[in-house]
Write a structure and sequence with these properties.
This protein has 437 residues and is an alpha/beta fold. It contains 15 helices and 17 strands. The chain folds into three domains: 4-135 and 303-338, NAD(P)-binding Rossmann-like Domain (Rossmann fold, 3-Layer(aba) Sandwich), CATH 3.40.50.720; 138-299, Dihydrodipicolinate Reductase, domain 2; 348-433, Alpha-Beta Plaits. It has helices at 13-24, 26-33, 48-52, 64-68, 86-95, 105-122, 138-145, 160-172, 176-185, 194-197, 200-214, 233-241, 303-319, 366-376, 408-419; strands at residues 4-9, 37-43, 59-61, 75-78, 99-102, 126-127, 151-157, 224-225, 244-254, 259-269, 281-288, 292-299, 351-361, 381-386, 396-403, 406-407, 424-433. It is elongated.
Amino acid sequence: MNPVKIGLLGLGTVGGGTATVLKRNAEEIARRAGRGIIVDYVATLEPERADELGLNDLRITQDAFDVVNDPDVSIVVELIGGYSPAKELVLQAIENGKHVVTANKALIAVHGNEIFAKAQEKGVMVAFEAAVAGGIPIIKALREGLAANNIQWLAGIINGTGNFILTEMRDKGRDFDDVLAEAQALGYAEADPTFDVEGIDAAHKLSILSSIAFGIPLQFEKTYTEGISKISRDDVTYASELGYNIKHLGIARRTEAGVEQRVHPTMIPKKRLIANVNGVMNAILVNGDAVGHTLYYGAGAGDEPTASAVVADIIDVVRVLTTDPENRVPHLAFQPDSLADTPILPIETIESAYYLRMCAENHSGVLAEVTKILGEGNISVEAIIQKEPESDQAKQVDIILLTHRVNEGDMNTAIQKIESLDVICGEIMRIRVESLD
């Protein structure tokens, strides 16, 4: 049987890793796929990169549309990233009847509904395992391995940069800005780190996971997104004193009213396995009604870890090249005509426990005023830490409160009232607390 020819768009970190893995493991991959898989055509703006990777015997172009429109290419592997021209290239490949493999979470999260509809119309596959959590096969697990379950909720550390920053702040007592600078120097964070530290990257990934878990259309724009740039080393220390670690989590939960879909800093009990995932590693905890808790852990980025997922998708596509399109695993796990219109809930409707840190005037009666407001809002307090002033002359002290579960809207109202008190200095720091049990 003739080998399947693929066209590779992009020879950056993941593209280079994909080419390397396909070449190094060619024999093993052919045994798994049932036929050979070869890179035939490569699009890159840096042709010298192909020489570095030992790919100088391949056809090389600087115009990615040459690859997409080439009749010999059966599978287009899009590893350019971003929204455009990735969207145009993928849609053109589908129009030409080619299958697509991509690691582009932003593309899938924002334009996936359109792309999958086009693929359904043309009878081709779009595979995107590498779009979420690098080498961790979480999409396959949700879509296939857990297909018997009603997924109740999932929670994931799905951005390695943010996890690295919070780990360093906890373990070494460092400030956010200091660790961010190191993350950029190490290549973990971009020169503009907004997507990583403000949660946009994680929100892209969470919207994909949520859609597959609950059988709903992709709705990135409705994902509540909050970053970690306001977390101080004091917050990390106080959380530890209370028995928690702070992680930047993506959480999706099914409720009777709809689906919670949110990304934000979260305090997790230290005894939870996911609370002890450190550095740039990723982990996703999934709760299904039949299986209970399952945890997926591994490298969430990097050339060969991500290439592992890309090549696995290529193998899957090759295995089903000749099958009836109607009998393939659906892109979003559920049959396209069975996706539910379950609403994504606004953040004000969710329930959580809360950590509150406030700066207060150093005199008697302040705590009583704060707890009175909380009591009026039916918000009960689980724990209080009132820090001793640094000196007898200190005019301000930190007060830390840990509440029981409460509606977010009610908490917002209480925080506004507390911040309006003359004895409170500035804004209150609020971190949601999840037990994940």
